[in-house]
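Support reply, case 0932

Customer input (verbatim):
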Amino acid sequence: MSQHSDSSTRERLLTAAKKLFLEKTPDQVSVRAINAEAGLNPGAVHYHFGSREGLIAALLEEELLPLWSDRMAKLLHGRNLATSVDDLVVAFVEPFAELVRTGDGRMLCHLLARAALPTGQLANVSAQFLPAPFEVMVGRALPELSVHEVAERCGLAFSLVLETYGRPVGGPPRGAAPFPRAATVIAFVTAGLTAPPAGSPSGAAGAR
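Our regenerated output:
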């Protein structure tokens, strides 16, 4: 199989998967259904992506990475790293707030939450689509925190944001609260990341 046809087949599978995930809940979308929707043989997903999870990771990276990459690249090359936590959180949260305004975006947020929350990250994706670059920038902006504490705080921040924006596509039950304002989420996450180090006098006072 040529490289061009291989790429074309991957795109057919990703397009078919996205269509099905928009029409059904994730649990209703099987590998067999994706292969059939794409008009390919029953082994196509496993051949090109290794598994259903690998296909989902590829779909999420293709659809979502561009939303963060430009924002983070500008911050990564910025000079004023010591005061960039607010900007980092804005660059992280705003794409989610924009995504959940559309059906496509809500589906992708829900898929991302289902795939990433159990372990905190996705497998088989590029380094740019992992939490590590964000953690590195937070660590540079908050040198008073240990590497371990930065990782813990970033993990909590990711979990909070994914839980907030990763609701099922079908919509919240009647009477449930809408998505919080992006400004509220940004303020909350920023406060958590910039809190005094654990065990410090000010941190201990805040914990009581």
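We compared this against your earlier run and they match. Two observations from our side: The chain has a mean pLDDT of 86. The chain has two domains: 1-50, 58-196. Please reopen the case if you see a mismatch on your end.
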